[in-house]
Amino acid sequence: QVQLVESGGGLVQAGGSLRLTCAASGSIFNFNTMAWYRQAPGKQRELVANINRLGRTNYADSVLGRSTIYRDGRMNTLNLEMNSLKAEDTAVYYCNAMMPTGNSWGQGTQVTVSS
């Protein structure tokens, strides 16, 4: 079982920036796809961005142009940088790793954007 631990959440003012980090117990380059999801109160969990083994990225329309997902091989982490934060970005953010044997999830990190 892969262990994923998120960090970097917190309270941020609207218009600000943050970086979320996901530390993995296995090599991040072994996963087929890694992703960030988020879940706001009363809403379903939604994909924010993902990156596949080849480094190809995909973003939700709501964060496109103001977010960057990337892997740091030296630190063995998956990162998500978000700029121009909005109140609607408030959610619990989860790291996800997809492998042939199944999915692994982190425990989540809360991001709150104050307007």
What is the count of β-strands? Answer: 11
Helix proportion of residues, in percent? under 10%
Overall pLDDT level: 96
Shape: globular
Strand content: over 45%
Counting DSSP H or I runs of 4 or more residues, the number of helices is 0
Question: How does this structure look, described?
Answer:
With 115 residues, the protein is mostly beta strands. Helices cover 0% and strands 55% of the residues. The chain contains no helices and 11 strands. The strands form 2 sheets. Strands 2, 4, 5, 6, 9, 10 and 11 form a 7-stranded mixed β-sheet that branches. It is globular, with a radius of gyration of 13 Å. The protein starts with a strand and ends with a strand. 29% of the residues are buried.
Summarize the structure.
This protein is mainly beta. The chain has strands at residues 4-7, 10-13, 18-24, 33-39, 46-52, 57-59, 67-72, 77-82, 91-99, 102-105, 109-114. A hairpin with a 2-residue loop joins strand 9 (91-99) and strand 10 (102-105).
Give structural attributes.
single chain, mainly beta, four-stranded antiparallel β-sheet, 11 strands, 115 residues, 0% helix
Secondary-structure topology with pairs:
Blueprint: E1 4-7, E2 10-13, E3 18-24, E4 33-39, E5 46-52, E6 57-59, E7 67-72, E8 77-82, E9 91-99, E10 102-105, E11 109-114
